[in-house]
């Protein structure tokens, strides 16, 4: 039986049987589709848009056009790898937000159309919920409640996760996100976009010899704008004395930048662990793929005696498998959206 509640969320009273869920992610510049059989990932296809590299950042209009070109093939390939037909799909999960409006619109419109054609329910997923629930794709899985440090190009958050459907933000960035700080400082260093992975690689061969500002903001919030300004002024001063300073010290500069960003994150995380006494800790988001952050948190887990959970690399960056996992929990709870659902670039957590 299908009914609408007062918040216009479609609720399905369903029988308990094995179900295939198609998931779609298009919040930024990666077009992704995945198929799950209940909570098991059968396929996870990601089509990355390389066109933005030459512009030093994502061009929203270009991203939406590429999503439009890629989404059919991404879904078809996901179904083929999973070995199922569209007629076997029981529900469709899609990123509703936050993200780029044009990019979200392509994914949501496709999901709504296919949902209507197949007469299956539609599941709207918060992008950051997907990152957090990516921890339930593989073993080991965190136990509730757990703390999650979510770090990506657009978000830096400390979240208390009480259940798959109950999460509370305890701290977040008041300006730039950690991933954005990596990319913007990388641009100052003359590195191509996206600079984060390049800084990570170069940092392995350098030493953190240079000191930059760490913003001391209230509670468990973060700030990276002062850090970026600190790097900018430092580089201007040193390049004025030696025009080749950046080139000659690039690896040490990258190691220093990564060290400060990781240090900023760890200070707040350790403080929160001590205050809450929660010993189940996870990291998520694109920056969770950073080897410096992963390594440092592994050290801290031993020093402070907490259990650390890190997703497989393929589930750190934007992908539809994480959207499907978040969708699976909503599917089990019988929580679906009406076909009046619209993409929301600033979707509330």
Count of separate DSSP helical elements: 10
Low-confidence stretches: 1-16
CATH architecture of the largest domain: 2-Layer Sandwich
- What is the averaged pLDDT score? 93
The number of distinct structural domains comes to: 2
Rg from alpha-carbon coordinates = 21 Å
Shape: globular
Oligomer description: single chain
Biggest β-sheet: strands ordered side by side in the sheet = 5-4-3-6-7
Q: Give the % helix.
A: 40-55%
Features:
alpha/beta; Nucleotidyltransferase, domain 5; 2 domains; 5-stranded mixed sheet; globular
Describe the structure.
The protein has 349 residues and is of the alpha/beta class. Helices cover 41% and strands 22% of the residues. The chain has ten helices and 13 strands. The strands form three sheets. It has a five-stranded mixed beta sheet with strand order 5-4-3-6-7, sandwiched between helices. The protein has a five-stranded mixed beta sheet with strand order 10-9-8-11-12, with helices on both faces. Strand 9 (156-163) and strand 10 (166-172) form a beta hairpin. The radius of gyration is 21 Å and the shape is globular. The model is unreliable at 1-16 (pLDDT under 50).
């Amino acid at each position: 039986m299908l009914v609408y509640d007062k918040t216009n969320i479609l609720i399905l009273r369903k029988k308990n049987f094995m179900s295939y869920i198609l998931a779609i992610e298009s919040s930024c510049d990666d077009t992704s589709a995945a198929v799950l059989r209940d909570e098991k990932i059968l396929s996870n296809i990601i089509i990355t848009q390389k066109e933005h590299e030459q512009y030093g950042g994502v061009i929203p209009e270009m991203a939406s056009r590429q999503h439009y070109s890629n989404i059919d093939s991404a879904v078809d390939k996901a179904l083929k790898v999973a070995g199922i037909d569209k007629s076997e799909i029981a529900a469709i999960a899609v990123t509703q937000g936050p993200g780029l409006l044009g990019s979200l619109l392509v994914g949501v419109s496709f999901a709504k159309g296919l949902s209507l054609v197949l007469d299956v329910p539609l599941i709207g997923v918060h992008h950051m919920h997907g990152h957090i629930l990516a921890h339930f794709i593989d073993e080991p899985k965190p136990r509730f409640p757990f703390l999650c440090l979510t770090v990506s190009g657009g978000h830096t958050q400390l979240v208390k996760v009480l259940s798959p459907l109950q999460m509370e933000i305890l701290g977040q960035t008041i300006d730039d996100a950690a991933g954005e700080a990596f990319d913007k400082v990388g641009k100052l260093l003359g590195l191509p976009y996206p600079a984060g992975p390049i800084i990570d690689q170069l940092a392995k061969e350098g030493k953190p010899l240079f000191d930059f500002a760490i913003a001391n903001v209230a509670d468990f919030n973060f700030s990276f704008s002062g850090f970026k300004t600190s790097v900018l002024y430092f580089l201007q001063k040193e390049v004025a004395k030696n025009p080749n300073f950046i080139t000659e010290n690039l690896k040490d500069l990258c190691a220093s930048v990564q060290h400060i960003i990781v240090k900023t994150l760890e200070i707040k995380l350790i403080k929160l662990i001590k205050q809450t006494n929660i010993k189940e800790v996870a990291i998520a988001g694109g920056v969770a793929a950073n080897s410096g952050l992963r390594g440092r948190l592994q050290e801290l887990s031993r020093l402070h005696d907490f259990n650390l959970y890190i997703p497989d690399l393929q589930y750190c960056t934007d992908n539809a498998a994480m959207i499907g996992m978040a969708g699976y929990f909503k599917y089990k709870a019988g929580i679906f959206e009406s076909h009046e659902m619209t993409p929301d670039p600033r979707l509330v957590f």
